[in-house]
UniProtKB/TrEMBL annotation:
It holds the Pfam family PIN7. It comes from uncultured Avibacterium sp. Residues 5-101 form the PIN-like domain. This is PIN-like domain-containing protein. It comes from the Bacteria.
Length: 253
């Protein structure tokens, strides 16, 4: 088990969800003036149960919390046996106590880290697989909602990047996803409005042709788009109304 000391005066993680409650013992050390903690952080701390302690500095003073951290570290490592020790702080003053612990062989592995995210995970591969699986589940949930809307009112689907981001973020609000994860999910789903069955094959052909062309060769005005489609579908017997409908599906932003 890893012993984690967090110098909260120096580093303020938003959550500890990244860490497994079964593999980590958390000691959150807060300063005398730090009376309030974020709800998300408290919720993640609760997951650790007995493997979590909050140490509060009773009085403000220069390096007061640092001395308390060192004292608690000595007491806890004497009381319990740990495989490794990590102090989460940007204060390099802790490097000397880390070196001392290693020299005296009080613990096998010890290190000061600038961020909670830098704690090495022995089962990182399984964590990555679990995260990938979760993203796949989320993407499936999003696509399911998109398909439902597509059957009722395709035009009500969000079409712009920001509106798609807001829509997905709202749909998965309870998951507290990071911005990069929401953007990744948007790339995993298809927001394209449902197309009339009778024109779908024509739309797919035109899209495939456009994708084979360099962006600079794409028609960007209504007249050139219409003429391009008329030329492309010459011989298919499409009327002006159908050409116009295909143009709206393909080129509408």
């Amino acid at each position: 088990m890893k012993l984690i000391f967090i110098d909260y005066e120096n580093v303020q993680p938003k959550t500890l969800d990244y860490l497994s409650p079964n593999d980590h013992f958390i000691v959150l050390c807060i300063g005398e003036n730090q009376k309030l903690l974020p709800v998300m952080l408290i919720k993640s701390l609760m997951m650790f149960g007995q493997n979590c302690r909050i140490i509060e500095c009773p009085k403000a003073g220069k390096n007061a919390l640092d001395f308390i951290i060192v004292d608690e570290m000595a007491r806890i490592t004497t009381e319990f046996q740990f495989d490794s020790l990590y102090i989460i702080s940007k204060d390099k003053g802790f490097d000397s106590i880390i070196h001392y612990y290693l020299t005296k062989e009080r613990i096998k592995q010890a290190e000061r880290l600038d961020s909670i995210d830098h704690i090495p995970q022995a089962n990182q591969h399984s964590i990555d697989n679990r995260q990938t699986k979760n993203m796949t589940v989320f993407a499936s949930k999003i696509q399911e909602q998109i398909d439902k809307i597509n059957k009722i009112s395709p035009k009500s689907l969000p079409s712009k990047p920001q509106s798609q981001f807001n829509w997905v973020n709202s749909l998965l609000k309870a998951e507290n996803l990071a911005e990069k994860d929401v953007k990744s999910l948007i790339k995993m789903v298809d927001f394209s409005p449902a197309q009339p069955t009778k024109l779908k094959s024509y739309v797919d052909r035109a899209k495939a042709k456009l994708n084979s062309l360099e962006k600079r060769h794409h028609p960007n005005k209504l007249e050139t788009q219409t003429n391009w489609l008329k030329s492309f579908f010459r011989g298919d017997g499409l009327n002006t109304s159908q050409i116009s409908e295909i143009r709206q599906i393909i080129f509408s932003k």
